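Project outcomes to date are best conveyed with an example. Our students and postdoctoral researchers have been running inverse folding experiments weekly, and each run begins with a structure described purely in tokens. The record below, which covers 321 residues, was selected by the lab manager from last quarter's runs and is presented without edits.
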């Protein structure tokens, strides 16, 4: 293990649930000037990409953009930045951003501002703009799983109590599938953080699992990216609903598996073993499907993606309209 890896592992271990506002990251490598200089570079990058605004309700929105040239906040990029940003910033620098995406969770009639797509109750936006606009890319399937990853990082810092925070949203979630909510005497229009996360992953499982093989599907994109390779798509990040060229990528299976495991761990922290078991089983089923269809034993590695037959969603919410 390198000195840098050891340092990061120690720092991450220090951020146990409930640790709260910890001192900023420091390091000292007098014999490694290149490593020594990394802190200055990291601080400069974070500073250049940090955003802060107030939404229509007056609630703060803070987080980190993928680059200074992008004005909005992207949930998928925030989720990849947070594990490093948490070593330099307290939760107040990115918690409001995570909660802002949950606050703007889609209801049954919520429409994306870019193209009018109604993804359905429980879906999460992929992009938030400071003027209140939101958008969701229909060509991808990692927006819900990414935000669950960011929420899990916050759970690791803030502890289980944060998961019970009520997040009053701009849309009603009563049309979303919420298997556990019948026994809970709360109005779904103002659910807890954990309920919104559960509704988001349930939306993905309901709308983006291929009926034939059980894998999570997306459009035909670069396997980590959000730009479709379909030349007839109405927007670069959306599907053509008439064609719906679909793939099942290793990237999405891994992120969905991780999100299901993370959601299970958060339910366990709240004492709900039944709901946790549901998500662990779904993770196991997805892993089995990925191993069956994506693993190449003769080559010793996974294939990047499968091309799936037919537009399975031309008349339903999974595709843009």
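After processing, the design step wrote out the following sequence:
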């Amino acid at each position: 293990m390198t000195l840098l890896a050891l340092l990061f592992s120690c720092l991450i271990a220090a951020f146990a649930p409930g640790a709260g506002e910890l001192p900023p990251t420091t390091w000292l490598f007098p014999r490694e000037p290149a490593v020594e200089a990394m802190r200055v570079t990291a601080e400069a990058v974070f500073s250049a990409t940090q955003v802060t605004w107030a939404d229509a309700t007056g609630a703060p929105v803070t987080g980190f953009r993928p680059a200074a040239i992008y004005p909005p906040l992207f949930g998928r990029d925030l989720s990849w930045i947070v594990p490093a940003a948490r070593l330099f910033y307290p939760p107040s620098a990115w918690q409001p951003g995570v909660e802002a995406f949950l606050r703007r969770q889609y209801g049954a009639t919520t429409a994306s501002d870019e193209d009018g797509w109604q993804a359905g109750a429980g879906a999460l936006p992929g992009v938030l703009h400071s003027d209140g606009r939101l958008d969701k890319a229909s060509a991808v399937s990692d927006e819900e799983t990414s935000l669950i990853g960011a929420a899990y990082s916050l759970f690791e810092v803030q502890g289980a109590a944060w998961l019970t925070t009520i997040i009053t949203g701009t849309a009603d979630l009563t049309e979303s599938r919420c298997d556990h909510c019948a026994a809970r005497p709360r109005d779904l229009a103002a659910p807890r953080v954990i309920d919104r996360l559960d509704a988001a992953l349930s939306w993905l499982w309901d709308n983006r699992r291929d009926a034939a093989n059980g894998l999570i599907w997306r459009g035909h994109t670069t396997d980590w990216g959000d730009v479709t390779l379909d030349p007839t798509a109405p927007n670069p990040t959306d599907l053509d609903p008439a064609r719906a060229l679909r793939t099942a990528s290793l990237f999405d299976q891994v992120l969905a598996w991780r999100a299901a495991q993370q959601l299970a761990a958060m339910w366990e922290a709240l004492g709900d073993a039944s709901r946790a078991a549901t998500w662990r089983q779904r993770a196991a089923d997805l892993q089995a499907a990925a191993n069956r269809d994506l693993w190449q034993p003769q080559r010793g590695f996974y294939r990047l993606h499968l091309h799936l037959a037919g537009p399975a969603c031309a008349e339903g919410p999974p595709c843009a309209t």
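The chain has one domain: 3-17+26-109+120-308. Residues 3-17+26-109+120-308 form a domain with the Glycosyltransferase fold (CATH 1.50.10.10). The training component of this project remains on track.
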